[in-house]
């Protein structure tokens, strides 16, 4: 059964009701509690990169409903992240910084800024510093600098493509294709571990979100070769990651709770890009529709104002899983209404 047109709106209002808090109780800020009910220890971990996706969701909501309060909340959340991070933007993980760089880059675009704010430039310099020729290229995962992976390299490539540095974006995409593309499945593997050799050791784990960020970077960088590969990647996602009903895997909590939501975001971008071709665009939209319908059908009520989305969790419900649902529902609606969000 098709989901109602207000499904994304109800997911957004549910997260506001259940998770939105002041950052360190400071007025004019926001931060998402990591679970509902929230931890009682105010020093509990806050998950920097989850908040970056919360910010992206608020920007999606603003583009869907410009007259609402999502843009004001996005600005408060950006301040809250900075405050909770000790009055700085950087941290020790380049994939985390890539996610926040992307969401703050979008916030600049929504606000019509002609030049990126200092915070975006700061994070962009951090990502550029992690792009070296060790292990043949790519972006390090963290400041230990012993692992280069898709979770850091693909969103960094997307960031540079959106910033206009398509040569760096293409170099990163070429490294991913050379080192972490699995021709047997058409999907991207996780990373390359430094082991004292020039080549390193490939970690062959496949995650849904890595396919999404590569897809986004391919589309944003553009060109016939990239767009053709993007189309094939969409088909590989459908053939290897979705179940028999076309539903993408949904994780309950932890970092993995975000993974399919991230993939959904970039499937929506692919579906709205005519150059990838009608077959791939249709496949991307079908994956979004099936996954959104599953999330909506299996929702439950917390109270009259708030919903919780699957998978079911015993005990506190992770913010990551609910952001995942919000991303899927926003992405599905954007496709149905042909809303270009980037």
Account of the protein in words:
By secondary structure, the chain is mainly α. The protein has one domain (91-336): Glycosyltransferase (Alpha/alpha barrel). Helices cover 54% and strands 8% of the residues. The chain has twelve helices and eleven strands. It has helices spanning 7-19, 48-64, 70-84, 94-110, 118-129, 150-162, 166-179, 208-221, 224-240, 259-271, 278-297, 319-336, and strands at 20-21, 31-32, 35-36, 147-149, 181-182, 187-188, 191-193, 201-203, 300-303, 306-308, 317-318. Helix 11 crosses helix 12. The longest helix is centred in the last third of the chain and has 20 residues, at 278-297. The chain is globular. The mean pLDDT is 96.
Features:
342 residues, mainly alpha, three-stranded antiparallel β-sheet, 12 helices, globular
Can you give me a brief rundown of this structure?
With 342 residues, the chain is mostly helical. The protein has helices at residues 7-19, 48-64, 70-84, 94-110, 118-129, 150-162, 166-179, 208-221, 224-240, 259-271, 278-297, 319-336, and strands at 20-21, 31-32, 35-36, 147-149, 181-182, 187-188, 191-193, 201-203, 300-303, 306-308, 317-318. Helices cover 54% and strands 8% of the residues.
Biggest sheet, open or closed, and with what strands and sense? Answer: 3 strands, antiparallel
* Gap from first CA to last CA: 29 Å
Fraction of residues in β-strands = 5-15%
Number of strands: 11
Rounded to an integer, what's the Rg over CA atoms? 19 Å
Query: What would CATH call the class?
Result: Mainly Alpha
Q: What's the mean pLDDT score? A: 96
Count, helices: 12
Strand order of the largest sheet: 4-7-8
The CATH architecture designation is Alpha/alpha barrel
CATH topology: Glycosyltransferase
Unreliable runs: none
Structural class: mainly alpha
* Helix-strand sequence: HEEEHHHHEHHEEEEHHHHEEEH
Number of domains: 1
């Amino acid at each position: 059964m098709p989901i109602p047109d207000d499904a994304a709106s109800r997911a957004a209002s549910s997260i506001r009701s259940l998770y939105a808090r002041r950052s360190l109780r400071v007025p004019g800020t926001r931060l998402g509690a990591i679970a509902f009910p929230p931890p009682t220890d105010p020093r509990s971990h806050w998950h920097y990169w989850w908040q970056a996706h919360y910010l992206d969701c608020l920007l999606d909501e603003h583009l869907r409903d410009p007259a609402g309060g999502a843009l004001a909340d996005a600005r408060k959340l950006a301040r809250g992240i900075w405050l909770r991070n000790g009055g700085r933007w950087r941290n020790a993980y380049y994939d985390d910084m890539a996610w926040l760089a992307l969401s703050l880059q979008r916030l600049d675009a929504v606000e019509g800024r002609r030049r990126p704010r200092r915070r975006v430039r700061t994070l962009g310099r951090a990502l550029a510093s992690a792009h070296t020729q060790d292990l043949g290229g790519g972006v390090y995962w963290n400041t230990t600098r012993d692992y280069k992976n898709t979770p850091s390299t693909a969103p960094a490539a997307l960031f540079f493509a959106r910033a206009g540095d398509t040569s760096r974006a293409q170099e990163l995409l070429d490294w991913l294709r050379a080192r972490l593309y699995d021709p047997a499945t058409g999907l991207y593997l996780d990373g390359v571990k430094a082991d004292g050799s020039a080549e390193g050791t490939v970690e062959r784990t496949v995650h849904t979100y890595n396919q999404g960020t590569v897809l986004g970077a391919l589309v944003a960088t553009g060109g016939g070769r990239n767009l053709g590969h993007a189309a094939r990647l969409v088909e590989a996602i459908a053939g290897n990651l979705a179940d028999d009903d076309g539903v993408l895997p949904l994780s309950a909590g932890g970092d993995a709770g975000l993974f399919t939501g991230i993939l959904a975001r970039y499937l929506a971008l692919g579906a709205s890009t005519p150059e990838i071709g009608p077959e791939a665009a249709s496949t991307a939209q079908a994956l979004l529709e099936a996954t959104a319908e599953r999330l909506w059908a299996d929702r439950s009520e917390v109270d009259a104002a708030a919903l919780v989305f699957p998978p079911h969790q015993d005990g506190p419900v992770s913010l990551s899983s609910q952001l995942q649902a919000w991303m899927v529902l926003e992405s599905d609606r954007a496709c149905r209404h042909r809303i270009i969000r980037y």
